Structure to design on (523 residues):
């Protein structure tokens, strides 16, 4: 009894679609079984709200008179890329400001734009015959821009290692503050709500899949950078998935401050918390079986972030249920766990997307191309000082 | 509800009346422990304020806007609800259990009474939603 996306969309338009959040679907599958759920549920909404460093926004300012070919560009003292056409730029989330450093960076500029705040643009140029302007300094808001769209090369990590610190000194990392001697474990995935853990074989998520990005409509643009498809089957038959990622795109003008947050990881840098909701059509029973997998059967590795190497040793495999219980036993020691991504916000996004689909406001798209299912992750073989 | 003692130093042109009225209007209950204010001189007052963390923070913001210098006698940390995204990063470093995640709603819960003022949460919060009162006063 397979269903197609267009059949499900018909039901959405008629107001007859049955839409569950990922958590609700997990609970119902536990009660009624996968086969029953596959018949009853049409769409499952998955979501995540976490730090996604590889994010940024493309902006077009429009031309001044006389025009300037902007070379060195800052927005609220944060450098933006000057290597595009005259008045186009890309501002990256992790770029620190010149004076406030990581306390205010590209992520904060994007957050302020979405909040409708005024931003100071400063740009200089050597001047050319056709672009005679050499310097411009002005205030602008999101509505002044011609185009402003988020384009994030790597978001929605399917799975990410949990972090601990086995050394005897405190470490400040992108996984938060890690206390010495395995004083804590931090983790950053929404587990059974995580979009790519719910469609791990990329059967429905593809290029062109419409999503909720920071509260507005967005799309899956491409395979994310550093994406890797790796699934290992455990002795108990469960799967342990590694980190596929998505590149996504969406108009800043439709986004809401509620679902985006600029952040600073002490001693590390600026980053952007991005909220994403992904609708997953229940096309058949196999799809439902993946959607039914709960936190007790989704795993990650705890790794030692105290050592700086790209090939960190796995200390222990843990389930998301264990991580969420508040403590994990490592070699006889009970180590406290803490989340870094917001489950509270992820839930809100899943519920919001559910509401939009139920009301017919959000119609699913058919991917225009599938995402490659053989992504490998290569290192960079070069000497580092 | 939190309680804290504030020492206020007024510039000469201020009298206490409008300030007290304003703080009460902002939802704080006040207990004046000590006051010496006379026209033309610098005024001093020690005030015990009770209210939600947010209201206290707003009250302090207001006082600062009035050019009043403030000293906090009972130190503590303050969390700005509206900035908090409930990520949980602060719970990783809180030694006392003052900051914990509610594992039902996955919202952050802050129990000021348990706080031992170590300050670890301030730098650990990526949203900069936790501030030291001293920092708030600066
Ligand atoms: S100051 Fe220390 S004890 Fe108090 S809430 Fe922050 S981390 Fe916990
Ligand atoms: S770290 Fe900051 S934003 Fe995150 S839960 Fe704690 S107070 Fe809220």
């Amino acid at each position: 009894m397979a269903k197609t996306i267009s059949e499900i969309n018909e039901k959405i338009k008629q107001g007859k679609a049955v839409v569950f959040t990922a958590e609700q679907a997990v609970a119902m599958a536990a009660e009624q079984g996968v086969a029953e759920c596959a018949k009853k549920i049409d769409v499952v909404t998955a979501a995540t709200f976490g730090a996604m460093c590889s994010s940024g926004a493309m902006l077009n300012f429009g031309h001044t008179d006389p025009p300037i070919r902007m070379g060195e560009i800052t927005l609220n003292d944060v450098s933006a890329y000057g290597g595009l056409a005259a008045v186009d730029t890309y501002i990256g989330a992790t770029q620190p400001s010149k004076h406030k450093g990581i306390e205010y960076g590209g992520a904060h500029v994007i957050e302020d734009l979405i909040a409708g705040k005024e931003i100071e643009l400063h740009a200089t140029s050597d001047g050319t015959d056709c672009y005679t302007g050499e310097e411009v300094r002005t205030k602008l808001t999101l509505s002044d821009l011609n185009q402003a769209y988020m384009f994030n090369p790597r978001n929605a990590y399917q799975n990410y290692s949990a972090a601990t610190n086995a050394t005897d000194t405190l470490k400040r990392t992108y996984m938060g503050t890690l206390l010495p001697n395995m004083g804590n474990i931090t983790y950053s995935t929404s587990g059974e709500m995580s979009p790519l853990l719910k469609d791990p074989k990329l059967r429905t998520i593809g290029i062109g899949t419409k999503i909720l990005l920071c509260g507005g409509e967005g799309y899956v643009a491409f395979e994310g950078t550093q994406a890797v498809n790796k699934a290992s089957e455990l002795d108990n038959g469960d799967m342990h998935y590694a980190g596929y990622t998505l590149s996504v795109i969406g108009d800043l003008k439709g986004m809401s401050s509620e679902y985006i947050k600029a952040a600073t990881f002490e001693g590390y840098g600026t980053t952007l918390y991005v909220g994403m909701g992904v609708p997953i059509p229940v096309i058949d029973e196999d799809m439902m079986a993946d959607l039914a997998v709960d936190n007790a059967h989704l795993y990650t590795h705890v790794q030692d972030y105290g050592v700086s190497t790209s090939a960190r040793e796995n200390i222990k495999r843990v389930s998301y249920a264990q991580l969420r219980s508040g403590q994990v036993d490592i070699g006889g020691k009970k180590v406290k766990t803490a989340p870094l991504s917001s489950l509270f916000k992820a839930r809100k996004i899943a519920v919001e997307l559910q509401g939009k689909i139920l009301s017919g406001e959000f119609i699913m798209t058919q991917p225009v191309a599938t995402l490659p299912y053989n992504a490998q992750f290569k290192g960079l073989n070069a000497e580092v000082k | 509800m939190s309680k804290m003692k504030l020492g206020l130093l007024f510039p000469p042109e201020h009298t206490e009346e409008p300030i007290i009225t304003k703080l009460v209007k902002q939802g704080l209950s006040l207990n004046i422990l000590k006051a010496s204010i006379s026209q033309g001189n610098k005024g001093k007052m020690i005030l015990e304020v009770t209210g939600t963390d947010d209201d206290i923070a707003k009250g302090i913001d207001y006082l600062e806007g009035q050019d009043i210098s403030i000293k906090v006698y009972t130190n503590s940390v303050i969390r700005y609800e509206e900035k908090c995204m409930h990520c949980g990063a602060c719970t990783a470093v809180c030694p006392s259990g003052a900051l914990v995640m509610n594992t039902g709603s996955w919202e952050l819960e802050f129990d000021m009474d348990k706080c031992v003022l170590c300050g670890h949460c301030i730098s650990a919060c990526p949203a900069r939603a936790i501030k030291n009162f001293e920092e708030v006063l600066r």
